[in-house]
């Protein structure tokens, strides 16, 4: 459950704040600077209001915005060595808090599409985790598919943290990958508009329940003159129940105290519904030690590069032809 007022935290309780950042209208690099300054100010203000805060999370696109006409140009990108990342580091150090931030990262291969990236910065200003979105929201997002897999890092209060970005959270396979690597807190940062509001909550709960881990999820909020973004920061218990739920208010701070050790205990001690264990240890009542042979065709096919659906030939939308008829445009922004 949420701590009372979320001002104080237990010694083993991870106090978290999910910031329903107002969807930014970004037209150029100057707007990115405004957002980064505001995000760092928000870190300080939130820590002042919640002195025991351990972890603060900002949504996808909170720094660079969602302007599809310009979001791939060099001037709109933020590398790990950027002064903006240095600002994030400084904010975490000065406020003794861990932070999750969204950046649009240049590709190390010249001419290739940028990455949609999340970073976790610890309270000493070090990048504890670097994640690149594995499942860009096709056919709209022009990002290069991530190449860092699903990293997991040690976090505060006995937590083991992983991050996914927006559409990534619709794939149960990615949540399972994070849990398989030991994550007991799965963070999801998003920039969804209202079309998938119900599915957002559903998948946040199912990712938690199927893997016996907490999920912390936060979305942009407000109107950007085109779409409305639903906010609704959600904290789910490892049994899939909702511990805290935000509304549609920009700037709403959704706080909750979670206990990573209790998720670890469930994984170690539950017999019924220990599904992440049972997946690789089937039917141990009938078969001593459980059946371990792979019975999943899609797992075998994916591993061998042969993944193909029975209706593959009938899938109509296979590229971003409608949104990027001339392909992605990377390089200096056009003048004027």
Report what the structure shows.
There is one protein chain. The chain is of the alpha/beta class and 336 residues long. Helices cover 24% and strands 21% of the residues. The chain has a six-stranded mixed beta sheet. β7, α3 and β8 (185-190) form a beta-alpha-beta unit. α1 packs parallel to α2 (83-95) and α3 (172-180) packs parallel to α4 (197-211). The protein starts with 13 loop residues before the first strand and ends in a 33-residue tail after the last helix. The mean pLDDT is 94.
Proportion of strand residues? 15-25%
Weakly predicted, low-confidence segments: none
Tally of individual helices: 7
Number of strand segments: 14
Q: What would you call the structural class?
A: alpha/beta
Shape summary: globular
Helix fraction bin: 10-25%
Report the average pLDDT across residues.
94
Termini distance?
53 Å
Give the spatial strand order of the biggest sheet. Answer: 5-4-3-2-1-14
Q: Give the SSE order as H and E letters.
A: EHEHEEEEEHEHEEEEEEHHH
Rg, Å, rounded: 20 Å
Largest sheet: 6 strands, mixed
